[in-house]
Amino acid sequence: MIPPFAYLAAIGLSAIGMALVDRRYHLGVLGRPLVVAIVVVEIVYLAFDLLGSARGWFESNPDYVVAIVPPGIPPEEPLLLAFLTLFSVTIFRLAGRWTREG
């Protein structure tokens, strides 16, 4: 059985990894534009999550998350969305740099 904090730890370690990639390649991802992107993503996707959970379209497995907050969203969800935004922007900037250099 996977401990409930494993999912949360994986998100945190992955975010640290992306921050290290940003630092290593001097991409300039971490800053105000990233915060704005995260806020927009959080609003849109959490609204969809709230609607989907309330209507029973999907649910989280309580064995894998720390808790489930009504109407059925785990606290890890906003952190995952923030990480996915960080990941996407980092990979986009990294790919742009590699295509310009290559």
Features:
mainly alpha
CA distance, first residue to last residue = 45 Å
The strand count comes to 0
Q: What is the gyration radius calculated from CA atoms?
A: 16 Å
Shape: globular
Provide the domain count. 1
Q: How many strands, what sense, and barrel or not for the largest sheet?
A: none
Helical content class: 55-70%
Low-confidence stretches: none
The amount of beta strand, in percent, is under 5%
Order of helices and strands: HHH
Secondary-structure class: mainly alpha
| Total helical segments | 3
Mean pLDDT, to the nearest integer, reads: 92
Give structural notes.
Helix 2 (32-55) packs across helix 3. The chain has one domain (5-96). The chain is built from three helices and no strands. With 102 residues, it is mostly helical. The chain is globular, with a radius of gyration of 16 Å.
Question: TL;DR?
Answer:
The model has no long low-confidence stretch (mean pLDDT 92). The chain is mainly alpha-helical and 102 residues long. The longest helix is centred in the last third of the chain and has 26 residues.
Summarize the SSE layout with pairings.
Layout: H1 5-25, H2 32-55, H3 76-101
Helix pairs in contact: 1-3, 2-3
